[in-house]
């Protein structure tokens, strides 16, 4: 058995208890204390599935608190370091309680839950299928659409959504055709959160490469990418490489569907890259040069 009172002691060690209703994100000191406590607890248990099952029990408990839920989420995250635990999440009845948290909690707990669900769904077809059966797609869509632009919740909800459907043909088709997925992607393609824009570009590139996009969908996505491409210089190298390769793949699918503004933006950025002659820009430059060859 896990020493849950010991794990939960971080809350009494670092909280003065004066405002229990104002639950906040763990501080670095909180997390450091909890991580050390988890290391000690895990060292005494041979089967991480047992630990995960107990953490799931904490989330479902009638007497749960924000502190116990947060601790359980951290334990589940650590358990997922073991691929076997991630694969067994549904068998341990862990998926539905996590999805339920997104309906009962907001803020810190909701965002942490979304992170863990994204981790569980990524490259895990069996858990993706379980998520589909439990209507996870609708849950994530609601959070993306109802959360504010630039918010952590929108960013994490889209990441969880992408992890749920990515490279699962039936689920990607359902997202695109039944759930108006292109509009959802475009909703997140603003310049407020470049990390989210990078996820949008990466997902759009994947959809293009896997042959999921129709010509009219390419047109909508390419138009949404124009402002991002015009402002690409404000992003880090990984973002710039991802965005430039994304627009290239969109053009590869349907070059005539891409708006002329995309070509103009690419030409402008390419002129800057050639003038700067930075070695780190070689991948971005190659993608933009390929894009211009593809466009009419």
Short description:
The chain is mainly α and 296 residues long. 72% of the residues lie in helices and 0% in strands.
How would you characterize the overall build of this protein?
Among the domains are: 1-90, no CATH class; 214-296. It is 72% helix and 0% strand. The protein has helices at residues 4-14, 28-43, 48-60, 66-79, 83-87, 95-104, 107-121, 125-133, 136-146, 152-165, 169-178, 181-187, 194-209, 215-230, 237-253, 260-276, 282-294. The chain is elongated and about 65 Å long. The N and C termini lie far apart (66 Å).
Q: Give the N-terminus to C-terminus distance in angstroms.
A: 66 Å
> What average pLDDT do the residues reach?
90
Number of helices: 17
Order of helices and strands: HHHHHHHHHHHHHHHHH
Helix percent reads over 70%
Specify Rg, calculated over alpha carbons.
22 Å
Question: How many extended strands?
Answer: 0
Q: What key attributes describe this structure?
A:
elongated, 296 residues, 17 helices, mainly alpha, 0% strand
Topology:
Blueprint: H1 4-14, H2 28-43, H3 48-60, H4 66-79, H5 83-87, H6 95-104, H7 107-121, H8 125-133, H9 136-146, H10 152-165, H11 169-178, H12 181-187, H13 194-209, H14 215-230, H15 237-253, H16 260-276, H17 282-294
